[in-house]
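A quick aside before the break. I want you to see a complete sequence-to-structure record at least once, exactly as it would be stored in a machine-readable document. Don't worry about memorizing anything.
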Amino acid sequence: MAQLASLTPQQRQSLFDGPALPPPPGVIPQFDQPPDLKSLSMGFETTGFLLATIALCIRMVRLILQYFYIGAVLYGPAIVSIRSSIILQYLQIFVPNKKPFNIYLTAQILIWVNVVFGIIYTFLMLFGFSPRQKAWDPLVEGASEFDMLGLHVAGGAIVAASDLGALVLPQISVWQLQMTCQKKFQISAIFLVGAL
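That is the input. The structure line, written in tokens, reads:
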């Protein structure tokens, strides 16, 4: 402290403005324009942001696939009950005495095909994956799965045939009624609204 007091004000100011210690050997001080790590920092930040976004997207896809799997499992019982109730209603309206027998038999076949399909589809969706997490998480290793595409193609064919049968079934009975063609067209149009 006594050394500072013996210095003139200009010497003290130059001492305060200068470095505290000399730089290490081989190092050139650059206080006016120090090296900038901004571009390197931006690179790390961008890379981290991209990796976090990819991880979030993978997590969201897995969650969406899990909800899709739950919906696919519930699809079988729901579609069986809906289609069966529609066809049973057709039976009650158009074939109350099981006559004509061919329409009754066709309706029964449609109902039982739907029931069997619904049971098989639900069973395969529930127990076709080992472990079950493989159904919505494609990253699970060492798991076995059945041919999902084949199930959906076969299911689509059965559902399309069942829809067509449920659409045509009341049309046969309507066109056998004894009434004018205009009324038959009107009643047919009402049942064809179900095609929408």
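Two observations worth writing down. The two ends are 96 Å apart (CA to CA). The first strand starts at residue 129 and ends at 130. We'll return to this after the break.
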